[in-house]
Every structure is written in structure tokens, then in C-alpha cells.
């Protein structure tokens, strides 16, 4: 893919009828600023273990207003290191949501602990505080709240529960960079918060992530479990923990730092796509546009997520995905409930355990969402989705 000025791609996409070319679910917002940053790093004498990663960490911590940031290869590794820094391991329990992408929650199993799921709110998809409190036991060691598809969780209520039971509150912000709850950026609510920079995130550097905290002991623990510093490699007594060698390269950090400098511009371009979607979705009876909760100041969506009406089923949602694919539009189910996936099924979870999660997951449809979408393409996507819903015989459904 060639890259021209900001907002323009020279791969010929703009010159082709929207229905005749593939419209991807996501498309990174990369400009000459990112290319220049990567080129400068590649021309330098060091592409790893240099100073760029540290600069990225400091800039990210400053962006959030947090004291410490630790760069990691992914959100999964970030959460794994956080759990290890908290001393959480075999035989212990961590409360989490079954309504999310599976990769981050997998970190609970990777440290040997057990994921204890709690059901979610019907409208936002975030953890329902009352359901969380029901799942707390003497063996619970932490609560992980997520911001699903960019929508902030009810952090005030989750914090109250965590304090009541003297548990650390971890924040999974891997899908929500730039969103705000009660005026505060996500990433500021957990004792530790985890971000991810893989596609389709607004800020992407291929792969990578960041863990943030205000606790210096926690930051030191994260770094101790992440990797030895270059100047420590000759020491045989430097650490009491065997590190995971889970650093990122300066090459990744250079791309991430360039993206961070452009983040508000990227988010603004994505918000324009959201506004266009909302305008065209208004004429689609029975489909609920993305929900925004009362305490949520701003949502920057991961994907444009719609919830099909109650007359739709999981199979009809999947049929719509197939119809869109035939028309060269990439769409996807937002989530297959974690408790029904094999790893967790083998832990004893079964269909019907979390009915709200199952109900919304069966009808959640993620549509292409990125800064390169044109209004013509968005109109085509919505009209194609309407036609697909009629083809499967669901008719107009009331949500």
C-alpha cells in the first residue's frame, strides 16, 4: 500500500466503485510521519534496547497522566506481567468478563489462576457490578474490568466493590484508547491498566502494548518480570524472578510514538466515520446503533458495532456476515462468549451460565471502521446489510 498525504491512499481505492473492491474491517492510519520515524530508526545504529522505547513509555504515561508506563509485546503479555507483579498464580481466582476478545483474559490461565466470569450489562456489554460482587469469594485475588469495543465500564461502582473486598482493580483498556468516563481518560481507573496496539486499534504499531500504574513498586515488579536491562546481562544475581524477555523493539516503539503524536487527529477522523454510520443507520428499523452510557463522556469505538433485533438469531447474524463478504465487505461477530470456548468449557462453564452475554453476543455485528472509509462506502455497507437482513427472512425486528 502506498501512502500519500494525510487521509489519502494511492492504491487506487478511491477510484473504484465501493461495491467492487474489498472493504476491510480495519485499515491503519499511517502517514509520512510514521514512515519517517521508522526510516530514521532503521538508519540508526540501534533498533532494540535503545532510548526510543523509554521515550514512548514516558510519552504514553504523560498522555494518560499516570506515573509509570511499561511497554510490552501485547495486551496479553501486559496482563500476564501485571498478574505476576501482584503475586497471583496457581489455585487463585480472578473475576473477568466473558464478553470480550479472548486473548487478554487468557493471561489469567497463563499464570495458573482461574478465570471466574461475571455477566455483563445488557446495553453497554461491560461488567455488571452486582454480578461481579456475587462472584467474589475468599479465593478471589483481583477484578479485571474491560471497556468493551471502546465503551467505558462503570468504574466508580467497580472501584467501590474492589475497595470493599480489598482487591486490586485491573483495567483492560485494550479496545478503548481515547474514551472517557466522567471526563477522565480510560486507563486511569485501574490500579494497573493494560493497552494493546495491534490492528484494529486506533493507535497501532503492528503489535505491542503498554501497562500503566501509579505505584512505583508495581512498576518495578512489571519491569522485573518483563526483562533484564542491557546493562544487567552480565549479572547473575540481579533479580529474584526469571524475566519473560518481553520487551518491544525500538522499531515498534518508534511507530507507536509517531502514532501517539497523531492520536487526536486519528480519533477525530474515526469519529467522522462514526457520524456517517449513525446517519445512515437511522433508516434501518430494528437495528440499535452503538449505545453510550450516562456516565460516559466520550467513546472512541474499536469497531462500528450494531446489535441486531430480537427476531435475529446467531445463525442469521452469521448469514449477514456471509452476505456482506460476498459483496466484498469484511464484517465479523464481535465476540463468541469466552465461557463457551473450549478452554473455558473444559473448566466447567456451560451454555446458559451467562445469559445476557450470550444474548448480546449472538446478535452483535462488527462493521468496517477506520479513517479511510468514505461516505459512499459507508452507505454501501449499510444498504448491503439491510438487503442481507431481508434475504435471511428476519424482517424488521424490534430491539
Main traits of this protein?
399 residues, three-stranded antiparallel sheet, disordered N terminus
Task: Describe what you observe in this structure.
This protein is α/β, with parallel strands linked by helices and 399 residues long. Helix content is 36%, strand content 13%. The protein is built from 13 helices and 13 strands. The chain has a 7-stranded mixed beta sheet, sandwiched between helices. β4, α6 and β5 (169-172) form a beta-alpha-beta unit. α2 runs parallel beside α8, α3 packs across α7 (216-226) and α9 packs across α13. The longest helix has 19 residues, at 263-281. The model is unreliable at 1-16 and 395-399 (pLDDT under 50).
Report how far apart the termini are: 40 Å
Largest sheet: 7 strands, mixed
Shape: globular
Fraction of residues in H or I helices: 25-40%
Count of individual beta strands: 13
Radius of gyration: 21 Å
Counting helices, strands and paired strands, the structural category is alpha/beta
The pLDDT mean sits at: 89
Percent of residues in β-strands: 5-15%
Number of helices: 13
- Assembly type of the chains comes to single chain
Order of helices and strands: HHEHEHEHEHEEEEEHHHEEHEHHEH
Poorly predicted runs of 5 or more residues: 1-16, 395-399
- The neighbouring-strand order within the major sheet is 1-9-8-5-4-2-3
